[in-house]
Design brief:
Layout lengths: L1 H8 L15 H8 L16 H8 L3 H14 L3 H22 L1 E4 L2 E7 L3 H7 L2 H32 L6 H13 L2 H12 L6 H6 L9 H4 L1 H26 L3 H9 L4 H29 L3 H6 L11 H12 L2 H30 L7
Antiparallel strand pairs: 1-2
Amino acid sequence: MEGAAGGGKGLDRPPGQALEAGQTVTNARNAQWPKTAEPAIATPTQRPSSQRGRRSGFGTGDRRRRPESWGRRLPLLPGLLYVVVVTQVPFLFTVYYSFQHWILTVPYNRHFAGFANYRELFSNPLFLGALRVTVELTVLTVAIAAIVGLLLALLLDRKFIGRSVVRTLVITPFLIVPAASGQVWKNLMLDPTFGLANWLLEPFGIHHVAWTSAYPLGSVVAVQVWEWTPFMTLIMLAGLQAQPEDVNEAARVDGASSWSIFWELTLPSLRPYIELGVLLGAIYVVTDFAIVDTLTAGGPGTATQNIPYYLFSLITNGGNVGQASAIGVVTVAITLIVATVTLRLIANVFRLEPAKS
């Protein structure tokens, strides 16, 4: 009987060997092939106290690391408090004032106005005109500066005598204070009588042109492009120097022309850097006040009055604190949207895969 049962399941004993008394087939199999020892799994109650402490956050290791982490963060606390006091506290006051009807010339009529300042703001033709001028200045300045910066970066990426000197001269306009740049261009370059621009164009029959009056928007764009082109050049030059040279060499060996290498290899790899320069430049140009103030003072009329200058004139001439604060909040909101996109783009630039570079 046992032999038949054993033959049905495959005997675990050599043929002809009989089972001992009281031994079943399963017991015989276990005796011949003992089970392998299973790894012991520690239950929560059996886990060492050090591991339980690390899991729950009350271990001795965390107690030791806690003073060390605070020791590293403590020197940053004064700087953090300074940033909060200088930036966030004034912004909170600006938000509060934007919901107030407060005109400095009529101080006794100050009261809570709700969203009235924002509704009046978006129905005000002066604000809409300033918004249009801001968009035009930003688009023209950033586009021209990006193109010229790309061309200069391609030039400075080549090896030639005096390249370091040329790089220094190209970067210089970016280091000049914007208010000083506006004064230099207004009095030395674009002056209708003694300006250098009219002197250079005199052989072509152009005499005594009042550039800031006849072409106010173009004058502001020219100065902003002169100031922001070095910034674009630096970013794109960094992108060019990060490219692997062996890829371009392989393309030249395969017979690719210089234009094909630029269009198919260089420009696609520069795309993150171009986007980064455009977005950062747009953030700064949107809030540009000094050049508009020193060059044209928003004129003639309101031809070059952008949002920062309109805010300045609103608070200095009319004393309307409520509407000026609403303009500041709207400008900050637009800037934050652009800055968020910029920060994500910066992260993508520094996480580029080797295949994309």
